[in-house]
């Protein structure tokens, strides 16, 4: 049957604060109905029998679906033969997601010109990074020009790619703020090399300046505001180290001074609360005339306890979201980083390998629960170690197909050499003593990979070894349910874009709740298949005259 696509966000609008609140209320209600699925974690899939959280009819249907259909599910594609309730879930979820298809920057600022970055400026950039820098730099330049901002503050500047594009391609003064002194050194050195290139090709005499760097651990909007204003008013500043932290619930923003120029804040994937602090500084500082922010790392956001609507957490920001008392938590915020576009573009081999590795991690948790319960209960590093192991194993599988084929041929013989009876191995792995050779080899290969994964994980956690037959016993118990992992995680991934939409709308509403002199919107600036975190929050301050008009 042909797949039926659904467009996102069609029934809702965030052009006004009232519309944004209505959209967020619908999102909160839908997410609340599917809380168990949202909170599920791969490590507990087998231990907690998580497939039972989902309607049995859905799981029975989806386990028989081709992988290609599963990968389109997070994008809102359904099949006609699916249960009506499953189709309703997928289509309703997609209707609540903010549209992410890239829009031309000209639809935002008519006279914007997106300059193609040359090879010298693009040195070291991936195709993804080049795409992001070209589009973001063009929009920042156009908005700075339209609002009269004289200096760009690049928050979370990293190695200075955006700062250098703005400096050399658009001739804008830039202050680059980052927590890493190493990044500052790289930015300065790289900028000097680029400056020589641009100076050599200039026909007319042109003033070329490199971005000025500030090293600062920005722990609050107070810190960001203070460092920003200090850096921009000091014409001789080359490098600053600052570790100031704000412990107050209400950040105290420095008073404006005439020596500071008008500013625009820009951030490309400023991590966690850094994006949030940018919004607060934009609102509080008179000199900051505009803002262009693309956030990321939602899992690193601080989150409020909802006891005091005057606190300043990373989430929620808006008064309406605080009053709704929707609690996300780290696991759900991590889900917000899922990309339906990336899921849809994965190859079949990569997907199957990914599902296998999820199964290995969940089965590994069963090993810990049974043989090392104190580690499972007390070790805070299991999740992070597990993610590292999953990535490491997936990378090995993808890059070493020949090694995989060798495992196919040798894994069963390896088991025979380890003081085990061949009939016992066959019985444990398959549940029967006979079967097609291809199935036999595939099951032996997967067990060998699970064993390798487990031994590596136990070693990293400082645990002892477990006998092979004991590992086989665990694998036999969970293997029949491994076919549910793909459908389960595709259903869960369908909720990720909703969580991201809620977080983005919360930030937008925070700006919309300010006075009428602030204009703000969400804009899909990047191609989401290249850059999953593609939504920019763009805001600027209106003059009193334009507001009255």
Automatic annotation (TrEMBL):
Q: Where is the Methyltransferase domain?
A: 128-303
Q: Which InterPro entries match?
A: Methyltranfer_dom (IPR025714), METTL25 (IPR052220), SAM-dependent_MTases_sf (IPR029063)
**Coiled-coil positions:** none
* Pfam families referenced in this protein's UniProt entry, alphabetically: Methyltransf_32
Name this protein carries in UniProt: Methyltransferase domain-containing protein
């Amino acid at each position: 049957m042909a797949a039926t696509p659904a467009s996102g966000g069609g029934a809702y609008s965030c052009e006004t604060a009232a519309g944004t609140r209505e959209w967020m209320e619908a999102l909160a209600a839908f997410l609340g109905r599917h809380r168990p699925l949202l909170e599920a974690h791969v490590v507990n899939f087998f231990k907690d029998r998580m497939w039972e959280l989902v309607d049995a009819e859905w799981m029975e249907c989806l386990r028989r679906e081709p992988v290609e259909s599963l990968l389109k599910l997070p994008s809102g594609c359904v099949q006609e033969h699916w249960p009506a309730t499953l189709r309703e879930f997928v289509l309703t979820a997609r209707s609540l997601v903010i549209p992410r298809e890239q829009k031309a920057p000209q639809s935002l600022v008519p006279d914007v010109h997106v300059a193609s970055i040359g090879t010298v400026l693009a040195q070291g950039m991936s195709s993804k990074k080049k795409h992001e820098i070209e589009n973001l730099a063009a929009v920042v330049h156009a908005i700075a020009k339209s609002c009269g901002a004289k200096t760009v503050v690049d928050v979370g500047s990293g190695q200075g790619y955006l700062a250098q594009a703005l400096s050399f391609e658009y001739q804008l003064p830039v202050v680059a703020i980052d927590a890493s002194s190493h990044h500052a050194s790289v930015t300065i050195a790289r900028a000097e090399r680029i400056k020589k290139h641009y100076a050599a090709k200039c026909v007319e005499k042109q003033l070329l300046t490199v971005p000025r760097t500030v090293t600062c651990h920005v722990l609050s909007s107070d810190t960001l505001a203070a460092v920003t204003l200090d850096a921009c008013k000091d014409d001789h500043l080359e490098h600053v180290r600052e570790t100031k932290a704000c412990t107050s619930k209400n950040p105290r923003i420095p008073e404006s001074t005439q020596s500071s120029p008008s500013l625009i804040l820009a951030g490309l994937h400023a991590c966690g609360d850094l994006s949030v602090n940018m919004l607060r500084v934009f609102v509080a500082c008179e000199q900051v005339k505009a803002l262009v922010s693309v956030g990321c790392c939602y899992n690193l956001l601080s989150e409020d306890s909802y006891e005091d609507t005057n606190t300043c957490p990373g989430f929620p920001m808006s008064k309406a979201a605080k009053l709704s008392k929707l609690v996300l938590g780290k696991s759900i915020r991590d889900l917000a980083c899922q990309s339906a576009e990336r899921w849809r573009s994965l190859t079949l081999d990569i997907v199957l390998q990914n599902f296998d590795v999820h199964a290995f991690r969940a089965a590994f948790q069963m090993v810990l629960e049974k043989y090392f319960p104190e580690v499972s209960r007390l070790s805070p590093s299991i999740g992070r170690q597990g993610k590292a192991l999953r990535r490491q194993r997936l990378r090995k599988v993808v890059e070493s197909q020949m090694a995989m084929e060798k495992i196919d041929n040798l894994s069963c013989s390896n088991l025979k050499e380890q003081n085990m009876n061949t009939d016992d191995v066959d019985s444990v792995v398959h549940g029967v003593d006979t079967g097609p050779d291809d199935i036999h080899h595939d099951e032996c290969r997967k067990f060998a990979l699970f064993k390798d994964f487990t031994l590596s994980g136990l070693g990293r956690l400082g645990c002892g070894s477990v006998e092979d037959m004991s590992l086989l016993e665990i694998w036999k118990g969970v293997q029949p349910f491994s076919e549910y992992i793909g459908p389960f995680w595709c259903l869960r991934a369908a909720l990720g874009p909703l969580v991201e939409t809620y977080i983005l709308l919360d930030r937008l509403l925070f700006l919309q709740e300010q006075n009428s002199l602030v204009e703000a919107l969400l804009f899909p600036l990047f191609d989401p298949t290249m850059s999953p975190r593609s939504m920019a929050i763009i805001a600027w301050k209106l003059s009193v005259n334009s507001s009255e008009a």
